[in-house]
Automatic annotation (TrEMBL):
Stated family: Belongs to the ArsC family.
NCBIfam families: arsC_related, PRK10853.1
PANTHER family the record matches: ARSENATE REDUCTASE, PROTEIN YFFB
Alphabetized SUPFAM superfamilies for the sequence: Thioredoxin-like (SSF52833)
Originating organism: Yersinia kristensenii
InterPro entries according to UniProt: Arsenate_reductase-like, Thioredoxin-like_sf, Tscrpt_reg_Spx/MgsR
Name of this protein: A glutathione-dependent thiol reductase
Length: 142
C-alpha cells in the first residue's frame, strides 16, 4: 500500500490514446510505481506548465517533428517554428505535437520519451527521495 506522498511522486504527461503513453503507464503499473496521469486533451495545458517544460528541457526536444501532427502541418507553418516562442504557441494550440510521455518526479526533474532502461534509472534514482535533500552528486536525468 502506498501513502499519499508516494502517490504523487511521479506525474506522466501525454495523451491517453498514444501507444507510447500506454506502454509507459503499463510499465509503471507493472513495477508498482504510483503516478498521476495528466492528459493534455482532457486536463489541458497552461502556458505556465509548458514554459516550465521548455525551461527544463528546451523547446526542440519537446517538439515532436516525427509524428503525424507535425507532418500534417503546412510546410509554411513548419518553417515558421524557429524559436521557443513560436514552438510554444504551436504546442499550446496542438498539444498532440508535444513529444511524449513526459515523466516528472516530485522534485521537478523530468524525463522525456519512453525507454525501459531510462525509466528504470529515473525511478530508482527518485524512489524514497521525495523527502530527502538532493546534493550536488545527484544524477539529473533530462
Amino acid at each position: 500500500m502506498f501513502d499519499d506522498a508516494q502517490k504523487s511522486l511521479y506525474k506522466v504527461y501525454g495523451i491517453k490514446n498514444c501507444d507510447t503513453i500506454k506502454k509507459a503507464r503499463r510499465w509503471l503499473e507493472e513495477q508498482g510505481i504510483p503516478y498521476q496521469f495528466h492528459d493534455y486533451r482532457a486536463d489541458g495545458l497552461s502556458d505556465e506548465q509548458l514554459q516550465g517544460f521548455i525551461d527544463k528541457l528546451g523547446w526542440e526536444p519537446l517538439l515532436n517533428t516525427r509524428g503525424t501532427t507535425w507532418r500534417k502541418l503546412p510546410q509554411a507553418q513548419r518553417d515558421a517554428i524557429t524559436d521557443a516562442q513560436s514552438a510554444k504557441l504551436l504546442m499550446l494550440e496542438q498539444p498532440a505535437i508535444i513529444k511524449r510521455p513526459l515523466l516528472e518526479a516530485a522534485n521537478g526533474e523530468m524525463l522525456l520519451g519512453f525507454k525501459i532502461e531510462s525509466y528504470q534509472r529515473f525511478t530508482q534514482q527518485h524512489r524514497g527521495q521525495q523527502n530527502m535533500t538532493h546534493n550536488q552528486n545527484d544524477i539529473k536525468v533530462q
